[in-house]
Amino acid sequence: MSSWQDVCPEDVCLAIEQSHSSWRPVIERGLQRVHETNPDYFPGLTRSDYLPNQARLFAAFSMPMDDVRYILMGEGPYPRADSATGYCFMDGAVKSLWSDEEGGGLSKKVNRATSLRNFMKMLLVASGHLQQEATAGDAMAAVATQARLPEGGFIQTLDDLQHKLIAQGFLLLNASLVFREDTAPVKDAKAWQPFLQTVLSALDQYQSAHKKQKAVLVLWGKIAEQLRVMPETALYEQISAEHPYNLSFIGNKTMQDFFRPMNLLGNLPEGKIL
Q1: Looking at the domain assignment, is residue 146 inside a domain?
Q2: CA distance linking residue 198 with residue 203, whole number of Å
Q3: pLDDT category, 272, cuts 50, 70, 90?
Q4: Is residue 152 one of the residues assigned to a domain?
Q5: CA atoms within 13 A on the CB side of 172
Q6: What is the dihedral of CA 220, 223, 228, 231, to 10 degrees?
């Protein structure tokens, strides 16, 4: 049997080096399973332009396995090179979360990243800063005005939000680790299923062996929910929701209740409520 290393793009090998050492053997086993299941996949990937690039494919695995409390599973990377970072829903083009314009709400780049925008609005509804029936216009501008104040009690940047998620123990993955303009996301997601099976199995074994509390699997969107066919997902408590690019996500009570105690937008120590 040939090895994934014989056919894999060089950028994938470089990406492994950016992951935490606790994950590297797992990533390599997962890549071998992808190769064994679909020997043509990596050669096809080599001939494609795919995202994320710049050795960021496994960026989510930079956190130690020991720190994982939640696995947040999106559908796939943002379809823009500067946006696809290897972390689900973290748009690399976004810097400031809040508009610096008079009467502005969320920043223009947050508004362009639809999933991130709706995720933030859901958090603001959960914390009571927005009412579910009024999450735009003057209501959003009032929140942004408070948020921009040094004493306003809000984080300011996407880096802050990503840090808060990781500090809470979120492994920020996608059902498909790559995006290609010439390939349907559901097809790439299917090809990466053996990889995710390996990851889920390895994490479960690690947490059992070290008597750690089992991680919770959070599935967003139809492609992520299709992972339920894998027996490894049954090892985890699961919470699911529509994909955040749907406006209905803002009003999802399950998501509001789940994220409310985490205070992700608050510029306070993790776990404290504004």
Answers
A1: no
A2: 9
A3: very low
A4: no
A5: 23
A6: -120
**pLDDT of res. 239:** 96
User: pLDDT at position 267, please?
Assistant: 81
Gap between the Cα atoms of 210 and 119, Å rounded:
33
Q: What is the mean pLDDT of residues 40-44?
A: 95
Structural domain tally of the chain? 1
Measured between alpha carbons, how far is 187 from 92 in angstroms, rounded to an integer? 25
**260 falls within a domain:** no
**Domain region containing 59:** 4-83+164-245
Q: Is 94 within 8 Å of 113 (Cβ atoms)?
A: yes
Q: The domain spanning residue 220 has which CATH number?
A: 3.40.470.10
In-domain check, residue 89: no
179: which strand partners?
Answer: 51
| pLDDT tens digits for range 78-129 | 999 999 999 999 999 999 999 999 899 999 999 999 999 999 999 999 999 9
